[in-house]
């Protein structure tokens, strides 16, 4: 049976208000991984802000503000940041399965600023993982008729060329992904290669924050043989809450000796003399190990 990982994508416009509203609303929905574009930044460290205990993955570059981050809310998943394909405008992770990895690249390209660096980055990651399920999703600020937008812009032309060259699959439907005073557009795109095509399911848009002009994108990843971390108990006894006075009055000082004698008698009933198993070794006090 396949395991489903819930992916949520949101451009937060670097807004503290949008971030707080989104965090509140997302807590009421099933989610495992959150792809964030334009995250709220904590100054002066230049670090994306979300919430603990979630893990926030991103690449910190000198004198550059991170435009993307990935928040891991499902702690059982085995996920690693891929530094080779993470930078100020992209964050890439691997999800470990028994026999392979799933690669997710979260990307943000500013309006009309697509350049050779962006194009080479996308083509390099496509070539690197051509035999691995690859998902590239994010805010490309790219408009094109191919993904049902009404117009074509510069970013859209360049992204179209990449899609056409590498036979990428577009998972968008006709739903708008951005709404401004100038109208609606489809600039947030989810792409996969052939190996990642069939694992992306239930793609749709919703609205988890009213303080961003981007709609929320949600979709599932269906994965067989998903690896998970082994859970370990973190329970601890709080000895400060123990009623030690009650313990002392209830404790029978002869209890241990009585228990030893009782164990010895029970042993003799089960194993008459000279028939004690070789695995039973006597130690002082009559106990057995």
UniProtKB/TrEMBL annotation:
Q: Which residues form the Endonuclease/exonuclease/phosphatase domain?
A: 102-217
Membrane spanning stretches: none
Designated name of the protein: Uncharacterized protein LOC113795535
Lineage at the top is: Eukaryota, Metazoa, Ecdysozoa, Arthropoda, Chelicerata
What GO molecular function terms would the record report?
catalytic activity
Give the source species: Dermatophagoides pteronyssinus
Q: Which residues form a coiled coil?
A: none
